[in-house]
Amino acid sequence: MKYDVILAGVGGQGVLSVASIIAQAAMNEGLEVRQSEVHGMAQRGGAVLAHMRISDKKISGDLVPKGGADLIIAMEPLESLRYVSYLKPDGALVTAAEPFNNISNYPDVEGIHSSIKSLPKWRIIQSAALAKEAGLSKAVNTVMVGAASCFLPIKANSLEKTITEAFSKKDESIGKANAKAFKLGQLACKQTAAGEQNEFSIQKS
């Protein structure tokens, strides 16, 4: 088994945290993980890109080739499209719905979403609203790990355990909130029935 992931976003959005959680959960399952240097973290608001390769055998290199990614996880929709050339024809793209307006001429968000929806496999996640529902607005990145869990070759309980252990070191309540954020993200991904790529949003009663 070999599974290649591109992680994208902008500085300050927690791309490194997402990569760290996924890598640790994979290693906890005995899988090999190779990850490239994360580019752009030093510049808040600048583009961030990381390559991650997961396998049950030795991995020869760090970088995912163009056209070779099984999954793109993006913290921001425009950044997800920036790297779509890396995606396999049957690969999946999971992105946060909310734009990060770090440029003056940011494109129309609805147009960006439409382009994403033209892909064979996609999920657009209302990550900010779900993080707020979990009780921790900063847990957007954990929501996105949950959303990506539908596609990752890692058991959901391994990811959740890694999240709980990592964040509970700071405060038990933070660990619980992040675990809830993970589950909400996972539910958001599962809400779309097979063959029906509908954007998930919270339904208020």
Strand segment count = 6
Strand order in the largest sheet: 2-3-1-4-5-6
The H/E string reads: EHEEEHEHEHHHH
Please tell me what the overall shape is.
Answer: globular
Mean pLDDT: 88
Percent range for β-strand residues: 15-25%
By secondary-structure content and strand pairing, the structural class works out as: alpha/beta
How would a textbook summarize the main sheet?
A: 6 strands, mixed
Number of helical segments? 7
The residue ranges in which pLDDT falls below 50 over 5 or more consecutive positions are 193-205
Rg, rounded, reads: 16 Å
Roughly how much helix do the residues carry, as a percent range? 25-40%
Please tell me about this protein's structure.
It contains seven helices and six strands. By secondary structure, the chain is α/β, with parallel strands linked by helices.
Topology:
Elements: E1 2-10, H1 15-28, E2 32-35, E3 47-55, E4 69-74, H2 77-82, E5 87-96, H3 109-117, E6 121-125, H4 127-134, H5 140-148, H6 156-168, H7 172-190
Parallel strand pairs: 1-4, 4-5, 5-6
Antiparallel strand pairs: 1-3, 2-3
How is this structure best summarized?
By secondary structure, the protein is an alpha/beta fold. The chain has helices at 15-28, 77-82, 109-117, 127-134, 140-148, 156-168, 172-190; strands spanning 2-10, 32-35, 47-55, 69-74, 87-96, 121-125. It has 7 helices and 6 strands; from the N terminus they run E-H-E-E-E-H-E-H-E-H-H-H-H.
